[in-house]
UniProtKB/TrEMBL annotation:
<protein>
    <submittedName>
        <fullName>Uncharacterized protein</fullName>
    </submittedName>
</protein>
């Protein structure tokens, strides 16, 4: 199962956080990949990723939330009721041992600040 991890970064404009419109963020990502080969949108498993890089204040450790989106053939749909905070065990099971690079390092490689 293909998994997409969207990480919230603290420099997102107010009101533009990923969880507030996760379906819109998913649509934007899938739209940007249309020219590339990728799995069918309905097959994707979506995770929202938060941590010290997400907020200016200290909110603690990293968290992962599974966001169950529905694909209607053109766009994604979802609601807060379809967001599920995952335990560390469930995250490890979903990622099958894949280690994510630290968000600050990835942003530095992209030339972004957070």
């Amino acid at each position: 199962m293909p998994i997409v991890v969207l990480s919230e970064i603290r420099t997102n404009l107010d009101g533009c956080g990923i969880v507030g419109d996760f379906a819109g963020a998913a649509d934007a990502l899938v739209g940007s990949l249309q020219e590339q080969s990728h799995p069918a949108p309905a097959q994707l498993v979506w995770l929202a990723h938060h941590g010290p890089f997400s907020y200016y204040e200290n909110v603690g450790d990293e968290t992962f939330t599974r966001v169950d989106l529905k694909w209607d053939g053109e766009r994604f749909h979802g609601s807060y009721a379809e967001q599920h905070l995952l335990s560390g065990t469930n995250v490890n099971r979903l990622l099958s041992g894949v280690e994510l690079e630290p968000v600050p390092a990835v942003l530095a490689q992209l030339g972004w600040e957070f």
